Amino acid sequence: MRITVLAGGVGGARFLRGVRAAAGPDDAITAIVNTGDDLTLAGLRVCPDLDSILYALAGVNDVERGWGRRDESERASEEMAAWGVGWPWFTLGDRDLGTCITRSHWLAEGVGLAEVVRRLASRWELGVELLPMSEQSVETHVHTAEHGRMHFQEWWVRHRASVPAERFELAGIETATPAPGVLAAIAEADIVLLAPSNPVVSIGPILAVPGIGEALRATAAPVVGLSPIIGGRVVRGMADACLSAIGVATSAEAVARHYGAELLDGWLVDPADAGAAAEGVRVLARPLLFTSVDETAAIARDAIALGLGRG
Ligand code: FO1
What are phi and psi of 34, to 5 degrees? Predict the structure, then answer.
């Protein structure tokens, strides 16, 4: 079975570890990953969501933070800070810098981001094919009344999403195209899963790449999403700040309606939200907290079963 997963960073990485655990030897998993968080810092291309997923599937991630590498040090960042280069509030560890330097080197040689990701991933047996949503730069910028326009990472990390966002802008989305392999991964999928990533700044940019939304609506594969909201609260991260900025309530039901029945065939909600309903979407209530890899695998199996009509 070909399983295609749309994913952001931290939540996406944890979900993918479960999907991998649920998959059998005859299953293939492809992750289409958000690149709207990406930025160029001190001349280096930083791809937070791709790196969170890469490090988590490789087992070398900082589990507590959900991003960056374990066994990390920050000597290079100390030197950069001494000269005021980079962002003092955006921590790039030495091992993480190694990834960014390597990626930037290959990109400067003219290697496309999809091939760069394939090369970076080839160092480990991930068990999941990673694809960027696009090889063109699409950067989420946040418009705020107090501080004007800023890169998503400044809003997310420096301000902790505490400055009200008036709107999100996907700079470059108009001319972006799906990365090589993305449309095939959707068209040839037996099932497409939406990870419980941030619907606005993680799943949203993927759906916004010209061609991807259409491909998801056209594919024969059922599309099943997992609610990132449990009991009216965000599990992790600050999706509520993002949802309110686009006028969507922080609820499992509101997110399902936001995605819409055009896209979704199925929607998993936690029992706390068992009443959630969305016209034309099959809803399944089951515990959604990723308490362990095995539990996440069970959730993934239920999502697949719901999509294939066995749920
Ligand atoms: N998140 C933070 O909260 N603080 C940081 O200093 C930080 C640095 C950082 C460096 C590289 C990287 O790939 C990710 C980093 N993140 C940091 C996480 C990042 O903001 C989020 O993982 C995603 O962009 C949101 O999904």
Answer: -65, 135
Ligand 1 centre to CA of 157 (Å) is 7
Q: Which tens digits make up the pLDDT trace of 5-58?
A: 999 999 999 999 999 999 999 999 999 999 999 999 999 999 999 999 999 999
Alpha carbon nearest to ligand 1 atom 14, residue: 48
Find where tokens 């008036």 sit. Answer: 166
The residue written with tokens 């055009």 in the block is 262
Going from the Cα of 70 to the center of ligand 1, the distance in angstroms, rounded, reads 14
Contacts of 77 (CB under 8 A, 6+ apart): 86, 91, 92, 93, 94, 97
CB 142 within 8 A of CB 168: yes
All structural domains of the chain, each given as residue ranges with its CATH number in brackets, are 2-137+173-307 (3.40.50.10680)
In this prediction the pTM is 0.98
SS3 assignment, position 55: helix
